[in-house]
Amino acid sequence: MSAPTAQAADNGAARRSSPAERGATPSFPRDFVWGTATSAYQVEGAVGEDGRGPSIWDSFTHTQGTIEDRSNGDVADDHYHRYKDDVRLMKALGTKAYRFSIAWPRIFPDGSGAPNGKGLDFYNRLTDELLANGIEPFATLYHWDLPQALQDRFGGWQARDTAKAFADYAGYVTERLSDRVKHFFTINECSRLVHLGHRLGIDAPGLKLPQGQQNQVRHHVALGHGLAVQAIRSRARRGVKVGPAENMVVCIPAIDTVENVHSAEIATRELNAGYLTPMLEGRYTESYLADAGRDAPHYTAEDLRIIASPIDFLGLNIYKPDHYVVAADNPRGFALAPFPASFPHMEPSWLMVGPEAMYWAPRHAARLWGVKSIYVTENGTSGTDAPDADGNIYDVDRIMYLRNYLLHLQRATSEGIPIAGYFLWSLLDNFEWADGYQKRFGLYRVDFDTQRRTPKLSAAFYRETISRIAVA
Ligand code: NOJ
Question: Which protein residue's CA is at the shortest distance from atom 10 of ligand 1?
Answer without folding.
Answer: 432
